Amino acid sequence: xxxxxxxxxxxxxxxxxxxxxxxxxxxxxxxxxxxxxxxxxxxxxxxxxxxxxxxxxxxxxxxxxxxxxxxxxxxxxxxxxxxxxxxxxxxxxxxxxxxxxxxxxxxxxxxxxx
Amino acid sequence: xxxxxxxxxxxxxxxxxxxxxxxxxxxxxxxxxxxxxxxxxxxxxxxxxxxxxxxxxxxxxxxxxxxxxxxxxxxxxxxxxxxxxxxxxxxxxxxxxxxxxxxxxxxxxxxxx
Lengths: 114, 113
Known about the structure:
The complex is a heterodimer.
Chain A: E1 4-7, E2 10-13, E3 18-25, E4 31-37, E5 44-50, E6 53-57, E7 64-70, E8 73-79, E9 87-94, E10 104-105, E11 109-113
Parallel strand pairs in A: 2-11
Antiparallel strand pairs in A: 1-3, 3-8, 4-5, 4-9, 5-6, 7-8, 9-10, 9-11
Chain B: E1 4-6, E2 11-14, E3 19-25, E4 30-38, E5 45-51, E6 54-58, E7 61-66, E8 71-76, E9 85-93, E10 102-103, E11 107-112
Parallel strand pairs in B: 2-11
Antiparallel strand pairs in B: 1-3, 3-8, 4-5, 4-9, 6-7, 7-8, 9-10, 9-11
């Protein structure tokens, strides 16, 4: 199983809403990532978890709050977002160490903030 | 100037032609080089992975790295309409916190039947 699943596929939320994005993998990977991708742009790294601990926060605003409840799950909690936060949010996972560059991406959640 | 430059395209080729893609970069510390393919409304998929300079072949795909010129290439032989996608190069130095990759902007490829 080389699949990373993400739910929901699409999300529309108002600026005062609270919502969560979910990501799951069953490949035994111990590194998980959140990326943000705007149209016709490459993915931008947001957060990295390694062994369920946050190892990288790329200066992401606090209205985005990641959580890694266990080695298979990764959540992204959203609160008080702005319209410019509308984007495709991608989750990825990989092994740690020498195989870390082989990142497996999920299909993404397309987020629209109104 | 961006660390990694990639022509956005679109690059349109007839079916069966060779697709030639490339990226230039400015950071001489980059050692690991990857090519990802991204179909519309999907996540990126790793195609090729190379370390340092040299060539690597996998089926119809060949990746080349020329570190002296800070230039990497991906060639797709016998292109098919199913190869129509955006191709992203990515790279990182030997030690990168969180295995952070630096991506190029992506090249959109259209293979016409």
